[in-house]
Amino acid sequence: MRLTSAPSLLLLLTLAGAPTVALAQAAVVQTPYQRPKALFDIYLDHPAKMGAALYWLRSFVNPLMEAPYSLFNEDMSVIVVLHGTELVTVARKNESRYEDIVQRMRFYADQGVKFKVCGLALKDYGYTPADMQPFVEVTPSAMTELVHWQNQGYGLITPVVTDKKVSIDEIR
Known about the structure:
Blueprint lengths: L5 H12 L19 E6 L7 H16 L11 E6 L16 H12 L3 E5 H6 L11 E4 L2 H10 L3 E3 L10 H4 L1
Parallel strand pairs: 1-2, 1-5, 2-3, 3-4
């Protein structure tokens, strides 16, 4: 009576005689970032999505401000261009409505991040520069501003903010 087939027996003997192998894990790298320059192009279909878009900014800035990099505004340059519905979040009259978002933007502005609003969009929404938060700069056009800074060597980052359909726990 044959208990195992030859290939199964070979596999069993191979595994039984194999030395114990430690499970490998992902390598952690410390890329030597030097004077990073980033340009965030934010154009959202709803101002409430600005909070999620700011997580993209956080994901860029915060790791660079922490050890081992400890970069600050003189070591990196970050520009955020707003030209969609999110520009209402930086209108002074809406500060209480978007208080958390404004506080986060103000924090990053204090760290040296430049927030710019498209002058054409500003007019479309019926605002003037006087209506904006003091940490905001008004540019002639978002499109010309984006091209200008890319020509200066800034890497373009366009946050994609989707409607979340499932929780992280559901897909983990």
